[in-house]
Amino acid sequence: MDAGLAALLGTAIGGALGDGGVLGAAWLTGRLQMSAQHTQWRLEGRREVYGVLLSAAVAYLEGAATASAAVSMETAADDG
User: Fold this and answer.
1) pTM to 2 decimals?
2) Which long-range contacts (CB under 8 A, 24 or more apart) does 14-22 make?
3) Alpha-carbon distances of 64 from 52, 61, 70, rounded to whole Å
4) Which residue ranges of the chain lie beneath pLDDT 50?
């Protein structure tokens, strides 16, 4: 095999492997970013739902406390 042909063949193989590595790394980076964005989207949705749930629970507990205080005041007035 001629030295020039061997050099050309080595360059072609090295270039192909290098390009394959670059493409593989780019593909993997894209997949990881997509996965991270999907996870972030899911967490934001959960955060919003839990916020609504906590707001409703606080409103319920405040209403229950107000009703309990009103019943206690009526009972105290009836006993007095």
Assistant:
1) 0.51
2) none
3) 18, 5, 10
4) none
